[in-house]
Amino acid sequence: MTATDPPRALLFDVFGTVVDWRTSVAREVAAATAAQVDSLAFADRWRSLYQPAMEQVRSGARAFTRLDVLHLESLRIVLSEFDVRIPEPSIVALNLAWHRLDPWPDSVDGIGRLQSKFIVAPLSNGNISLLLDMAKNAGLAWDAILGAEPARAYKPLPEAYLRTADILGLRPEQCMMVAAHNGDLMAARECGFRTAFVSRPREYGPSQTKDVAPESDWTYSVHSIAELATALHC
Known about the structure:
By secondary structure, this protein is α/β, with parallel strands linked by helices. Helices cover 44% and strands 12% of the residues. The protein contains eleven helices and eight strands. It has helices at 21-32, 39-48, 50-58, 67-81, 88-95, 107-115, 128-138, 148-151, 158-167, 182-190, 225-231; strands spanning 9-12, 19-20, 102-103, 119-124, 146-147, 175-179, 194-198, 220-222. The strands form two sheets. The chain has a six-stranded parallel sheet, with helices on both faces. Strands 2-3 form a two-stranded antiparallel sheet. Helix 7 (128-138) links the parallel strand 4 and strand 5 (146-147). Helix 1 crosses helix 2 and helix 6 packs parallel to helix 11 (225-231). The chain is globular and about 55 Å long.
């Protein structure tokens, strides 16, 4: 395979790249708490515990634990911080908000177009049941559900990328990581993946300062998944 040959698989970060987690989670927080809290601030705080929770697994301090469990633990912390009391069944139901995230407007069409030519799959830190539910809810046409749970490793550990390529029977250079996060792409490139940056400048709201633009010479840098499909002649 040469540098000019197309990749075989496009592997997608999901939270923020394919789906709008912030608006979706905030909507469900508002409903579950009867608008007792600033739902966007609540969603932001919940998300802020995402990386620290996974770092416990990445560091070896904790055995591999699926993201649904980590999300639920973080939710209990945030409910306490915001002094919100809701029944246990409502807490469990609210945790499933991450299974029902809305896609960005270009995601469904763009991924559908790419699927006509490439293997398309998530390479996400989400667990399998979460990503399956999300795909059904959002209409995402994945060929497979891959990422942290099948690989038993959370990004940006190299194992998350390399084991995913191996599951597909592909070499790293036959895979392209698609993400709105420069750090994710850097880790993937260090593993030999090609890279595509998709700009999502409002993932964290109107005051976002991180990942608003590409920070390296990625293989592709685009403003939407549909634009990536066009660049790849789909």
